[in-house]
Structures are given as C-alpha cells and as structure tokens.
Design a protein that fits this description.
With 168 residues, this protein is α/β, with parallel strands linked by helices. The chain is 37% helix and 14% strand. The chain is built from six helices and six strands, in the order E-H-E-H-E-H-E-H-E-H-E-H. It has a six-stranded parallel beta sheet with strand order 1-6-5-2-3-4, with helices on both faces.
Length: 168
Amino acid sequence: MSFSLIPNIRLNTVFDIKPDMLLRRNIRLLLLDLDNTLAPYSGQPPSDALNAWKRELESNGIELFIVSNTKTERAGCFAEAFGVSYLNRAGKPSPKMLRKAMILRSKNADETALVGDQIFTDILGANLCGITSIIVKPIRLKNPLFALRYFIEKPFRLLRKREGKKNE
C-alpha cells in the first residue's frame, strides 16, 4: 500500500487489456471503473465490443467487477446489462469498497487489478489498496472541468510507459 499517483500500467482503452497480460501478473479479478472508462457518462448500455471483450477475459478465468463512485442507479443498470457484479458509492480513492469487492470474490491484492480513467480516484485508490493500477484515457472529455482534470493528471500518466512498449 502506498500513496502514489503513478499507475502500474498505462493503456489507451480497456480493449488494450488482454487476458495474457493479466495472467502473466496472476491477475484473476479485474475491478472496473464505470464512467468514462467502460462507457461515457451519458448512460449508454454496454457495447457489443465491450461484451466481446468481457467474454474473452472471462473465458480465460478473469472475473470482472464494477466499482463505481456514482451515487445513482446507473452502475446497477449497467452492471446488470453487462452481466457482472458491482458496488456503487465506492468513495474512491478510499480502498474500502475495493477490499469489499475482493472479499466478495475471495481474491487477494496480488490477484487483483483496477482499471480507471482518473488518477486522483481510481489509481490512488488502487495503489492505497495494494492492487495493480491500470490507467486508460477517458472515453469523452466534453465537460471542460473533466478536460482540466485530465490536463492536471497528464504528468502522472506519462510517468508510466505505455504497456506493450519495451519497459512494462
């Protein structure tokens, strides 16, 4: 557990997360941020591509679990349509709900990763919990405040080389 804003892995999208990449690290549980990581804030259902990605991971023994800070029913509706369990009102960067998800799935920190689009919530929360942290680019930056936050977070994103390059 460390107070670090630097992700362990940097990718463009969740679709860049492949089973072999996770299995090499012994990751069996992938915690997922919802908004701007899996889908835009607009409330769209899971896409066909997202469902295909989920099937690929699950067929390789990797469980998916949504952990969202949303206070609305959006996480539940999306998770049901996506066919995965979820926790909302997670309060990230607090690691409390990340630990709860691991307990619910009988996994430890060494077997768990979290993917999200925000340094100050997702990545910090994962690092505080002692799990592998994966940053992806936000799906949409329409809101000027999100664009500003992304600009502020960019140096922390760049401190980690993109996955698939020489240095993993």
